[in-house]
Design brief:
Layout lengths: L31 H50 L2 H21 L1
């Protein structure tokens, strides 16, 4: 195998094309045709990964939504199970009846 040079390109092997080098369009003077080609390649790469990204986004959204629904459901369930306030109200009512009964005697 050929060694990777400082520019990131590979030497010319049989049947192998040199690797692409990173280009900063702001620093280097590129022709409009080169800029157009770069945009086309970026768009093609973006469209190639779009279905995979969309699937991951849907999965993430559904996971977050399920977590939110589970938290709200658990909260409502927990609040519905709280009976200690009912017990306190019963004791308060019994205390009021006892106090009212003591005052009438």
């Amino acid at each position: 195998m050929a060694a990777v040079g400082p520019g990131g390109g590979m030497g010319s092997e049989a049947g192998k094309a040199p690797a692409a080098q990173r280009i900063d369009p702001a620093r280097e003077k590129l022709s409009p045709a080169q800029l157009h080609f770069m945009r086309q390649v970026e768009l093609a790469q973006w469209q190639k990964t779009l279905p995979q990204r969309r699937g991951r986004n849907i999965l993430t959204g559904l996971s977050i939504g399920a977590l939110v629904v589970a938290i709200y459901g658990y909260t409502f369930y927990s609040v519905a199970q709280e009976r200690f306030l009912d017990d306190l109200e019963d004791k308060a009512k019994a205390a009021r009846v006892k106090i009212a009964g003591d005052n009438s005697s």
